[in-house]
Amino acid sequence: MTSGYPEITEQDPLVPMQSGGHRERLAKFVSELWAQRRHVVETRRRIDKRFADENDWFVRKDTELVD
User: Fold this and answer.
1) Where are the domains of the chain?
2) pLDDT band at 28 (very low <50, low <70, confident <90, very high)
3) CA 62 to CA 54: how far, in whole Å?
4) Residue 61 — pLDDT band, cuts 50, 70, 90?
């Protein structure tokens, strides 16, 4: 899964070096943000699957009535 942003492989010279504590807090924040994003994506998949399953059930039920 890609985020749509280019992969960063080296330090950006325009961004000043951060202190260790600040970098750790930033890393933790980014990690939590990705975890929330993953949770949203998984929830959307479950909702989409449930909706598709319910629609499939309705279609099969309608088909059985027609036969």
Assistant:
1) 35-67
2) very high
3) 12
4) low
Cα–Cα separations (whole angstroms), residue 24 to 6, 14, 59: 23, 20, 52
pLDDT of residue 53: 81
| Whole-prediction pTM | 0.48
Sequence-distant (6+) residues with CB within 8 A of 26 are 18
Structure tokens at 20: 């260790």
CA atoms within 13 A on the CB side of 63: 6
Q: What is the pLDDT of residues 32-49, one digit of tens each?
A: 999 999 999 999 999 998
Using the structure block, give the residue that is written with the tokens 């890609």. 2
Q: Residue 41: which residues within 8 A CB-CB, separation 6 or more?
A: 1
H or E, element range at 10: none
